[in-house]
Amino acid sequence: MPFDVDLVRQNWPHPVSYFATIDSTMLEAARLAEAGCEEGTVVAADEQTAGQGRHGRRWHSEPGAGLYVSTVLRPDLAPDSLPVLTLALGLAAADAIEETASVHCDLRWPNDVMIDSRKVAGILVQLLDGIAIAGIGVNVNHSAFPAEIAGEATSLRIAAGRQYSREALLVALLHAVERYLQILTGAAGKPRILGLFSQRSSYARNKRVKVDRGVAVVEGVTAGLDPSGFLILRKDDGTEDLVLAGGVRPAS
Ligand code: BTN
Q1: Is the bond preceding 63 in cis, omega lying within 30 degrees of 0?
Q2: CB hemisphere CA count around 199 (13 angstroms)
Q3: 124 Cβ below 6 A of ligand 1
Q4: Is the dihedral of CA 69, 112, 228, 214 positive or negative?
Q5: Residue 55: its pLDDT value, please?
Q6: Report field, pTM of the whole predicted structure over 0.90
């Protein structure tokens, strides 16, 4: 189905740019942000030829199947709240997916959205002079994935056995992002987001995981989030490590 950008524009009060094909919505959103676009500006695409994932990976961006979107945020946040912003975006993506498709989502710290232990959505936040570009990719109507990610990825279609409107999902997602940003920048602030994430994520506590640190893989049991939103890992020798970036996988 062609992407109905008008439906999104009718349900979102900020500019929405749409591209049939683009290198990456992150690059276009950064260009718009540098040119002074308003908060809430959205860039969406039907296909990305150079979709960016975290840690320099590529994001599989099959034409017509997924939601590939970046939105420009100007949150009034201290720099030490930024790790919590990424957690808030994961919560927003999980809410939007659950509202749209009625499937239960888990959150793998910091912000991978999972269904049945497979990744259905990923989030990439890039900072640019106090502006945050929030990139969100959701596997919506994919019926299969390339061999290198097939064991790890899922889509709403694979999980629920039917196709979904990417436009309805995008509208739900934008409103969910707005809601969680209000929580984060409001009186309840960081502790509230940390509490919501900890309730929602099976990874936050008591999960035996392996963490890929680049130079070594460390194993232990998760022991909650610290006040900045970093993951506490209790190792088998009883000492604790703080995990600052992703690379968390269940230890089998
Ligand atoms: C991850 O590795 O989990 C993050 C993936 C983020 C993908 C989205 S798709 C829309 C936006 N544009 C990109 O190039 N990347 C993000």
Answers
A1: no
A2: 8
A3: yes
A4: negative
A5: 87
A6: yes
Q: How far is the CA of 119 from the centre of ligand 1 (A)?
A: 13
Task: Output the six-digit token pair for 162.
Answer: 């039917």
Q: Which of 21, 31, 42, 52 to mutate to test the pocket of ligand 1 (most atoms within 8 A of CB)?
A: 52
Distance from chain centroid for Cα 232: 20
Write the CB contacts of 3 (distance below 8 Å, at least 6 apart in sequence).
18, 44, 46, 64, 166, 167
Residue-wise pLDDT tens digits, 124-167: 999 988 899 999 999 999 999 999 999 999 999 999 999 999 99
Cα-to-centroid distance, 184 and ligand 1 (Å):
22
CA 200 to chain centre: 14
Token pair, residue 79, equals: 């720099």
